[in-house]
Amino acid sequence: MGVLLLMALSAQTAHGASLFGDHPCPSWQGLGYGEKRAWTNAFLAPLSLTLKGLKKSKEDKYNDDPKAYEPAIIGIDAFCQKHPDLGAADGAGHYLKKLFDMPPS
């Protein structure tokens, strides 16, 4: 299931990036917090809902938390600092995978 989930997440991340745009990591770092929050929610909310369905989970680990964008932005920032050649969508996908791999709360 892990490989299938990773493949689905990769496909959804690519699809989400085409819908919402992707910020190369250097330009992500220059965005204001409000812009990061809006992009993060628009990008991760549908991906999280998709993963919830794929995992047949009762919990939507992103959408069930009204402040989920806060740790997500921190995670994308950290990812972009380590991978300046990639984009914010890659960082968001990486963050969401880690979030869903965490045990239920």
Order of helices and strands: HHHHH
Question: How many runs of DSSP E, i.e. beta strands?
Answer: 0
**Class based on secondary structure composition and strand pairing:** mainly alpha
Number of helices: 5
The gross shape turns out to be: globular
* Helix-residue proportion: over 70%
Compute the average pLDDT.
Answer: 82
How many domains would you count in the coordinates?
A: 1
Low-confidence stretches: 1-8, 11-19
The radius of gyration is 13 Å
Which SSEs are present, and which pair or pack?
Layout: H1 2-20, H2 25-29, H3 33-54, H4 69-82, H5 88-101
Helix pairs in contact: 1-3, 1-5, 3-4, 3-5, 4-5
Q: Any key phrases for this structure?
A:
single chain; 105 residues; mainly alpha; 5 helices; 70% helix; globular; disordered N terminus
Short description:
The protein has helices at 2-20, 25-29, 33-54, 69-82, 88-101. By secondary structure, it is mainly α.
